Amino acid sequence: MISVIITAHNEGDELRRTVESVQTSTREPLETIVVDDGSTDGSCGQVDGPAVRVLSHKQRCGVAASRNRGARSANGAVVAFIDGHQRFSAGCLDRCARVALTRNAIVWPDVRGFDEATRVIHGADFRFTPETGRFTAAYLHARPFACVSRITALRAPGYVMPRTLFQYLQWPAFLRGWGASEASVSLKAFFLGVPMLHVCGPMTSHLFRKSFPYRVSNEDVDWNHAVIARVCFDERTWSEYWLPSVFSVNLSASNLRALDDPSIREEQREFERRKVRPDRDFWRRLLKTPEPPCLRTASFRSAARPFRLPLNRQSRKVDS
After folding, report:
1. Integer Cα distance of 264 and 261 in angstroms
2. Which residue has the higher pLDDT, 128 or 307?
3. Using H for helix, E for strand and C for coil, what is the string for the chain?
4. Residue 317 and residue 109: Cα distance in Å, rounded?
5. Closest Cα to residue 80, out of 147, 18, 146, 144?
6. Distance between CA atoms of 281 and 164, rounded to whole angstroms?
7. What contacts 204, CB < 8 A, 6 or more positions away?
8. Across all residues in the chain, what is the average pLDDT?
9. Model confidence at 306: pLDDT above 50
10. What is the pLDDT of residue 210?
11. Mean pLDDT throughout 193-206?
């Protein structure tokens, strides 16, 4: 069974159309979970019924908290994370789910806007901007030669993963509102050695809005990127690079103090025990650039602990 997690906040009639698209495009057994993230327009009441389970937040918590809650209540072998304003081609989620289970991977289909004249997105490459401290990604528009190919980042919802991977890839607990949700999963997958794959052919259409229907704070977005760095990198990398060189400039004093919250530090230590790649690989292998000078010493981590996911790892060879 595929569990489809739909996060929704004041989606209007788009949510009903999204649910219909999911249910009519999928042949596999399906579980549809809508997480109503504090909506006030009644849109989630239009889809409540025997085929859909609605989980409600009284106040808006954000994309990360909503997806975590939905996935924790899921029963399917595969979980798909989508927005409340998407459409799917016939068999799209079915195809992605099969690849995700076979490869034990995160799988992302082709993406385009609602206007069929827009360019098709065939995955994304991870990017980082040191001046702003933002983790992001660049869309790939060139059609790959392989039906299934490796990518290094996610940048829009519509991706699926085995539910057994979710406990390792779930969103950091302290993320707020909107911003960097796909970057957090991408970076966690990189450090854990979980493949991210693009499947060419199956298509999801996404409503790319020009403005947000809710309040977005730059301070909260900066906070989210700082939380990702705090959780995903070891203590030395945080204290010698991320904190002094990047986030001390972008964050308020209160937020900087909050990053030392015991719960955040415990989340970082738990992730550190699971990593299979050292911090320096973020620069050398993911960004393909030397690590910052302050980290180029013999004492900088040369290897991560030999943690392995308790699942059969699949071949790294791409499908022809």
Report:
1. 5
2. 128
3. CEEEEEEECCCCHHHHHHHHHHHHHCCCCEEEEEEEECCCCCHHHHCCECCEEEEEECCCCEHHHHHHHHHHCCCCCEEEEEECCEEECCCHHHHHHHHHHHHCCEEEEEEEECCCCCCCECCEEEEEECCCCEEEEEECCCCCCCCEEECCECCCCCEEEEHHHHHHHCCCCCCCECCCHHHHHHHHHHHHCCCEEEEEEEEEEECCCCCCCCCCCHHHHHHHHHHHHHHHCCHHHHHHHHHHHHHHHHCCHHHHHHCCCHHHHHHHHHHHHHCCCCCHHHHHHHHCCCCCHHHCCCCCCCCCCCCCCCCCCCCCCCCC
4. 18
5. 18
6. 25
7. 82, 86, 87, 88, 89, 92, 109, 110, 111, 158
8. 91
9. no
10. 77
11. 97
- Across the range 145-150, mean pLDDT stands at 96
Contacts of 263 (CB under 8 A, 6+ apart): 173, 174
Cα–Cα dist 205/33, whole Å: 19
Tokens of 176: 């707020």
Which residues are 205's β-sheet partners?
87, 112
- Give the start-to-end residue ranges of the domains of the chain: 2-206, 218-295
Question: Quick one: pLDDT band at residue 311, thresholds 50, 70, 90?
Answer: low
The residue behind tokens 């699971």 is: 274
pLDDT 10s digits, 241-281: 999 999 998 899 999 999 999 999 999 999 999 999 999 99
Structure tokens at 119: 């360019």
Length of the chain: 320
Pairing between strand 78-83 and 159-162? antiparallel
How many whole angstroms separate alpha carbon 239 and alpha carbon 262? 16
- Quote the tokens at residue 22: 């999911």
In the chain, the percentage of residues whose pLDDT exceeds 90 is 81
The pair of three-digit structure tokens given for residue 293, joined into one six-digit string: 């000078």
Return d(Cα 285, Cα 279) in angstroms, integer.
Answer: 10
Structure tokens at 11: 């989606």
User: CATH classification of 2-206 is 3.40.350.10, yes or no?
Assistant: no
